Amino acid sequence: MSAPAPPKRLYIKTYGCQMNVYDSERMADVLSPLGYGMTDDPANADLVVLNTCHIREKATEKVYSELGKIREMKDARRAEGQTMTIAVAGCVAQAEGEEIMRRQPAVDLVVGPQAYHQLPELIARSHRARGERLSAEFAPEEKFDVLSATRRPTGVTAFLTVQEGCDKFCTFCVVPYTRGGEWSRPAADIEAEARSLAAQGVREITLLGQNVNAYNGANDAGEGLAGLARRLAEIPGVDRIRYTTSHPRDMDDTLIAAHGDLDALMPYLHLPVQSGSDKILKAMNRAHTAESYVRLIEKIRASRADMAISGDFIVGFPGERDSDFEATLQLVRDVNYASAFTFKYSRRPGTPAAAMPGQVAEEVKDERLARLNALLDEQARAFNQSQVGRILPVLFERPGRHEGQLIGRSPYLQAVHAIAPPHMIGQIVPVRIEAAARMSLSGVLAEALTPA
Known about the structure:
Number of helices: 14
Structural class: alpha/beta
Low-confidence stretches: 130-135
CATH topology of the largest domain: pyruvate-formate lyase- activating enzyme
Number of strands: 19
Largest sheet: 6 strands, parallel
CATH architecture of the largest domain: Alpha-Beta Horseshoe
Shape: globular
Strand order of the largest sheet: 2-1-3-4-5-6
Helix content: 25-40%
CATH superfamily of the largest domain: tm_1862 like domain
């Protein structure tokens, strides 16, 4: 009887968004039947995958820098008679294509975000014909069709992709070019995956999509994201549902109403606005105004008064004047955010904004970003402080750094620390909040406060 093949070691480095975290998890799943197990050490990996993001500033150059280091590891393994396959996946792979292999010949495979299910075939091909290494033009439904419906979640929360791509064509964004048009997974397939996750102990599911609230996956019934959320809320064990990232144009009345009457749908909404200036919003091709965004937030809060709002902001977009930036600060004051993500505008090659006149100086961007962050930080602290004295249901996820401590999440996505027994991991427990910091809350179990 022949000896079993030695296990293969897989190293994946993930850049960017939660969609990429999800994709990396599925890459590991699809490669597992080939004998690949995860390693944290790229120098000892048989297969190295860089799952890239094209959104952040200098993202492409960071990938090439990382590839230079990995090439040295590959050369060292070759000197010892061992092999290493290098794959570049994700949005940089889609955007750069064969240019990656031209600039860095050590790369064996380039795999676009819709084609990672073909990794096993491409790995085999790479050993036979270096001419067939680029796979970036496959429909998203093909990707999901071939992936196993079963996953191995690592905790009591999980991401679940329901929608990919974007049809909005914001002038600063490469997603429509790297992820393609909007496409929604069939609701039945999502439900099957969610049931599998729940059976393995997942209590909270975050639905993912580039424009997740554009979801329309049940074509026979016209089911949008609200209908999907209601469907998933019926699954035993699924107690919490979140979704990200949304676009204001797709926040319809049915989804707003669902936040008011669906207990499983958490009162936390990430709804990027990007700017408070109508002039800049028009240049960004956002197709909403500052006023329409504020009215939308008011409508959402009328449906659920305790809704926590998170947002995205870009400062220093081409043509942004002091008055435009002041309009952004005023919008922040009007909305009052619980949290937010802020960025300095950076040119993305191939996007319309990259060629726009009126590029803003870096020192101006820095000053505006500091002012915006100071205001948003003040609001986030005030929101956290407003929870002190409340009893919040907390889903405990993992042990904390201190002896006997657990860490979980409030309905508003805040990290909550409390002294609690380990068996409470995976349970939703009432916690009285006693203190608030900038990024987290701390409290005690409500039952510990009840007299015997």
